[in-house]
Amino acid sequence: MPIQSIPLEDTFADVLRKAMRGAGVNEKQLSDATGISAAAIADWLKENGAADDAQARALAAVLRLDGGKLADSAAQRWTPPHIELSDVRRHSQEPHPSNGYVFFLDGGREAALVDPAGIPQNLLRLLRDGDYHLHYILITHKHPDHCDATADVAAAFPAAKIVMHALDVHAIGALAAKATLLRDGETLPFGGDATIRMLHTPGHTDGSSSYLFQNALFSGDTLFAASVGGAFGDASTYEDILNSVRSKLFTLPGDTVVMPGHGPPSTIELERQHNPFFT
């Protein structure tokens, strides 16, 4: 099944809310700094309308966002083009609104699953119908909408290695004892000459990780098309998630395809050009 066109994960209101929370700025403070009424800002946060270009630029100056890109978000001027890769399959994970992925070599003889979540029967049917020989279960972070079907998948594919960062592995309970714990930059063999590289990208959670396979980056909830994930780490922060993107992800080749945990695929170059969190 080809990757379906889906809307951006974050609206202008979502971007505004994340930036305000990250900067520690409330509605009144933002109003005082920009001259925009607090009532208007409150309406925008409730998805009632959006800033015009001048207002978006004023907001961005206070919130350390890119003014032009935030204006594009407010006006809904940009979404990524349809992107799909022949060796990656995206699937929805009902009842969660998250994305899961299977990527593979040799027609599925070597396969890896990213973020086992949702109704287990649906996920197992997808894996069996695809006749995938599953080598790895890769988990980007600890939130249930990305890992709550781990036990079922592991039971059905006992030879597959569960891969996660140590700081989040407690989320999979007793299975943590058998998980392969990767550190930043470490790789896994995959097929003949291919590898999977883990990038530790903290901020959304302390153990948030992204996985790089060839020119596909599975970014979990670190980087979305035109946005980033919320900062919910115990120790890591909003600044950490921005630094993770700048130092780990934006240094990748521009044609690297970003396969996020929510929303549509993008590319590193498109995110450099259009993501309002980065100037």
In words, what does this structure look like?
The chain is α/β, with parallel strands linked by helices. The protein has two domains: 12-75, Orthogonal Bundle (434 Repressor (Amino-terminal Domain)), CATH 1.10.260; 88-274, Ribonuclease Z/Hydroxyacylglutathione hydrolase-like (Metallo-beta-lactamase, Chain A, 4-Layer Sandwich), CATH 3.60.15.10. 32% of the residues lie in helices and 21% in strands. It has ten helices and 14 strands. The chain has helices at residues 12-23, 27-34, 38-45, 53-63, 67-75, 120-129, 144-147, 150-156, 238-249, 268-274; strands at residues 88-92, 99-105, 110-114, 134-138, 161-164, 180-181, 187-190, 194-200, 209-213, 216-220, 223-224, 227-228, 257-260, 266-267. A six-stranded mixed beta sheet has the order 1-2-3-4-5-6, covered by helices on one side. Strands 7-8-9-10-13-14 form a six-stranded mixed beta sheet. Helix 2 packs across helix 3 and helix 4 (53-63) packs across helix 5. The longest helix is centred in the first third of the chain and has 12 residues, at 12-23. The protein is elongated. The chain starts with 11 loop residues before the first helix and ends in a 5-residue tail after the last helix. The model has no long low-confidence stretch (mean pLDDT 96).
